[in-house]
Amino acid sequence: MNKSKRLIVIDDDIQFAGLLGEIARSAGFETELCDDARDYFLANEAYSVMVLDLNMPGMDGVEVIRQLGKTAQDIHLILISGYDKGVLHSAEKLAQEHNLNVVGSLTKPLEMASFISMLNSIDIEKSFPVYLVESENSPITVAEIRQAIVNNEMELYYQPQIELRTNTLKGVEALVRWHHPTRGLITPGMFISIVEKEGLMGELTSSIINMAVNQSNEWKKTGLNITISVNVSAENITSLLLPEQLSDLIKDHGLNPQSIVLEITERALMGELKTSLDILTRLRMKGFGLSIDDFGTGNSSLVLLHRVPFTELKIDMSFVKNMDRDLDARAIVETCVMLSHKLNMDCVAEGVENESIRRGLTLMGCDIGQGYLMAKPMAASQLIEWIENNNYPISKDW
Ligand code: C2E
Ligand code: MG
Ligand code: MG
Prior knowledge:
It contains 15 helices and 15 strands. It has helices at about 15-25, 35-45, 60-70, 85-95, 110-120, 140-150, 190-195, 200-220, 240-250, 275-285, 300-305, 315-320, 325-340, 355-365, 380-390; strands at about 5-10, 30-35, 50-55, 75-80, 100-105, 155-165, 170-180, 185, 225-230, 260-265, 290-295, 310-315, 345-350, 370, 380. Strands 6-7-9-10-11-12-13-14 form an 8-stranded mixed β-barrel, surrounded by 4 helices. It is globular, with a radius of gyration of 22 Å.
């Protein structure tokens, strides 16, 4: 039997683990039980699915998640806990932050049907890119990042954004990737916080904006008129020169400012709000789109919505991803859709991972969907091929 059919249950309640094991076995998995997580790491065996209890003596589930993240394991994770849903949500979030693939979470007493449907939903052939995790021995250094910007090692990947009502391609979000000469492909989660902490965000963002504007220009020449959303950090929106610089850059390329959307997280707006407000208002006046990213995860969201002239609200993925199996998450998504429309903003849902989520969002009237169901972020050269293969018409609405 290959690794992709191997499942391990880690739970100190061995009777309960046995029950889970039986169910998994009848779903076609070769199953092992383990009542002490330390044994799992000592054995160093390969599994593709782990059913993990959070509450265990010795090494608990949270510690297991941290260890799995450190060793960048390519594993599907199902979390189980006797705690309330809040604890499971935080553990899921933590696992996602460690780039682990969380299939779902279950509370005790177990709902057998949910467990079976989770097992059946696992695409066992699907492997997840194992990204290099910042290792304790060789942490990523500021000098490396600085060098990478100069050496053009940063590349933008683009993830499609689909207008749900019409199923047309509205635009793409630009997401930075670092092609490190020895460490391999590094995702932003591994280095953006260092860039921010070390004050390099200005440099990185201006190189990203240049790349995005050049790309937009290339696409425009071939008749592809789509919006590009660029993520900006706190440091970028305290530079009073940004609106003019961006505006000049767009004019030089003969582009429409409406084709550029700047995504800002609530967290980024927590600092110098007065300066940020000045800059964001001027960006808006110049015609750029402004999106509030990861909505619902920061502080004072409603105050910001009231004060900043956002054109788009982007619901955080943690709610969207879970909305088809978590009524609370669904209620939050629905409320965000209503709120954005009341405030005349477009609503974007990120983390659209399956058809039932896409259908639910469309029924709620959410405007735009972005997620692995439609496409993962890809290099610019792949986008054209993706559009052709999927027959996506281009939206002309912006
Ligand atoms: P974000 O702006 O919220 O971007 C969305 C993230 O969710 C991307 O991760 C994307 O690959 C991922 N994603 C999209 N759809 C799905 C889905 O269906 N399922 C799952 N599990 N994930 C999905 P990525 O590219 O790793 O970026 C992570 C974060 O890093 C971004 O979150 C953004 O905050 C930051 N970032 C990325 N590029 C830049 C950049 O150029 N500048 C700045 N300042 N931050 C950036
Ligand atoms: Mg974003
Ligand atoms: Mg986001």
